[in-house]
Amino acid sequence: MSDCINNSNHYERGAALIIVLGLVAIISGWATTAAFEDMLSLRRAEHGMSAAKAEMASLSAFELVKMSLKQDARDGAVDNLDEDWAQTAPPFPIDDGLVEGEIKDANRYLNLNTLIDTHGHVVVAMVAVFKRLFTAHDLNPSLVDALVDWLDADDITFGPGGAEDSAYLYQPYKVKNAALDRWRELAMVEGFDAQTLKTLRPWVRVWPLMSGSKVNINTVSKEVLLAMFPLMSDVDVEDILAARPYTTLKTLATLAWAQGGEAQGMFSRLSVASDVFMLRTHAVFGHADWREEYGLLRQGEKVTLLWRERLFENIQSATAQVNP
User: Fold this and answer.
1) Are 246 and 173 in contact (CB under 8 A)?
2) Are 67 and 84 in contact (CB under 8 A)?
3) CA quadruple 53, 59, 64, 67: dihedral positive or negative?
4) Is residue 165 within 8 Å of residue 153, measured between CB atoms?
5) 143-175 residue pLDDT tens
6) From edge to edge, which strands make up the β-sheet containing 97-105?
7) Cα torsion 235, 109, 187, 62: sign
8) What pLDDT does 10 receive?
9) pLDDT band per the 50, 70, 90 thresholds, residue 11
């Protein structure tokens, strides 16, 4: 009898030990999981804080640029590439991160939205300008017709390369019949593939239609000038670029390439000042990599935001210095 009792106690102690070991394993597993989840939560909080710092640094750069553009307006009505806003600055260290910014005037580019006026009607003179630009860079000029149909207010096919709704039957969208809002929207237009956008990028941009926005002779490129003025030669362009900056357009108005009805119409689109600016910021804090583009309209000393867009490009400069 005693042996049976002893065996029973032995079995009970063994079962209890197994239960205890099982509970220990369960608790250990739970503790490990809880610790891992706590670590993830902490990392998320750290990343969230770093992202918030990066965004605030970007906004700080935006506010500084606004102040700089206002001061530039007070200093004079002429804008050129020798001014402070046009200079490249190194990344600025702030706390445990870096922030850098690059500002350009949009007036050095052609605005794709100028293919139409504010009423949605085609501007024939600008169609000719863009077709010359496309041809000069080995792009099919008929693409301009498709872009016109995307922009203009009617549903009548424009030119041999026109593309109204019938060209988008296999797309989940129709022709917009309004101005472009963003550069990336251009990829929706019939025929505008990634390579076309890459080729156009150095010479054109997209911003809202404004009657006061002109091409700045002090910042414009050779390629844009040649597209605007077909009578202009390479020698003419080199002379113009060498004589910059200009404080007035009076001397240029008397030159041969500026004569004639079409040329005079284009000449009226020139200016010695800029009113639309693009700021690109890049802020890095920890693992947070924050890039944005801001569009700013300057009217006198008033600077207003036209657009703000998050960018996801492979910009290495600041990142390489924070995380070598």
Assistant:
1) no
2) no
3) negative
4) no
5) 999 999 999 999 999 999 999 999 999 999 999
6) 92-94, 97-105, 276-285, 288-299, 302-311
7) positive
8) 57
9) low
